[in-house]
Amino acid sequence: MVTPRITAHAVLVALATLLVLACGSKSDEAAPEGAGALAPPSLTAPEPPPPPRAPETEEELVRAFTTALQARDLPALKKLVVPELGADLERMHTTDADAFWGRGQQWIDNVASGFTIAAKQEGREERWRGLLRFENGNEETVVFARLDDKLLFAEL
Q1: Distance from the Cα of residue 23 to its chain's centroid
Q2: Could you give the CA distance from residue 135 to residue 119 in angstroms, rounded to a whole number?
Q3: In whole angstroms, what is the distance from residue 156 CA to residue 59 CA?
Q4: Domains parsed from the chain with CATH numbers
Q5: How remote is the C-alpha of 117 from its chain's centroid?
Q6: DSSP letter at 81?
Q7: H/E stretch holding 94
Q8: For residue 126, what are the CA distances in angstroms to 20, 110, 134?
Q9: First-to-last C-alpha distance (Å) of the chain
Q10: How, if at all, do strands 115-117 and 139-147 pair?
């Protein structure tokens, strides 16, 4: 036997179901932008970030080299030095990676203290010596080079 109470309950359930279905079937065009509608997944891969630009000044080269050391990124380090020095870095890393990165940490600490470059390129020489003076009292003599119009380290 169907009672009025069961019938009323069945009607309410049916109305609620219809309401849910009706709300779920709204077209995306009718929904205001940003109203919680999910965008369809992108089928294309995101664009890779542009490669970092090559350092143009001695200071930029020192900072880029330090950033690569902090990341322990040997391939990035090798891009900032002339090929012969890159081969030396690779050999030193292969021989004793801990000592290599330990020496790199000394460089990082020196640069973090602040630095100035006492000698800079005056003309268009291919190689020139520079003296890095660090705020912590340490100094490093380096040789800068231009190779294929890129500023690189030739000696560290």
Answers
A1: 44
A2: 16
A3: 15
A4: 58-155 (3.10.450)
A5: 26
A6: B
A7: helix 83-95
A8: 75, 27, 25
A9: 96
A10: unpaired
Task: Measure Cα distances from 46 to 43, 49, 52, 94, 133 in Å.
Answer: 9, 9, 18, 35, 42
| Average pLDDT of the chain, as a whole number | 81
**Are 102 and 43 contacting, i.e. CB atoms less than 8 angstroms apart?**
no
58 vs 156: CA distance, rounded Å: 13
Q: What are phi and psi of 62, to 5 degrees?
A: -60, -45
Contacts of 109 (CB under 8 A, 6+ apart): 136
Per DSSP bridges, beta strands 127-134 and 115-117 are antiparallel
Please, are residues 59 and 117 in contact by the beta-carbon 8 Å criterion? Answer: yes
> Quick one: DSSP state of residue 77?
H
Q: What is the pLDDT of residues 37-67, one digit of tens each?
A: 566 656 676 766 655 678 889 999 999 999 9
Residue 100 has a CB neighbour count (10 Å cut-off) of: 19
Categorise residue 72: left if φ over 0, alpha if ψ from -120 to 50, beta otherwise: left
Tokens 């999910």 correspond to what residue? 38
pTM of the model: 0.65
34: left (phi over 0), alpha (psi -120 to 50) or beta: left
